[in-house]
Amino acid sequence: ATALTFDTFELPIDVALAAPFRERMSERELTIEELWELRAKAEGSTGPRRSAILAELNGRLARTVSLLVIPLLAVPLGLATRRNERSIGIAVGVVLMVFYHNMLNFGEAMATSGRVSVGLGLWMPVLLFAVLSIWLFAAVSTWPRENPVVLLFARIGRGREALLNLLPRRS
Which residues have a Cβ under 8 Å from the Cβ of 141 and sit 6 or more positions away? Predict the structure, then answer.
């Protein structure tokens, strides 16, 4: 039998270095850290670039905060007193989520263009969504036998009637 012995062994391997990542073209491609740094640099400036940076950063933060509120909406809409009412809650939940998503997109577009402030365009829908979710959760806690969708539509109907009573009547 033959045994190999050696003190050192070198095997050169040509490894091509990865090409650097291309330059980011828009705010949508930046990380949150990069957006935060750009926000700080553009603190005193105005213009479309600053509003786009603020809208993108706040849009991401608003969607993240929304994740904390969604379970408060899901629990009441998932509960039902009868078997067929559960599907109503799921349908209303899907409609609410689609409407909320579109409101955030619209608010972000308006804030990007500078037509509205970031607080109004992005954080107002988050606040309204949170208030609705907390109210539905509290309603189910207070009236456990009631369907929250029925309670919501009853509240909307009472609000509509109150608004109609404020309008002048036609003769």
Answer: none
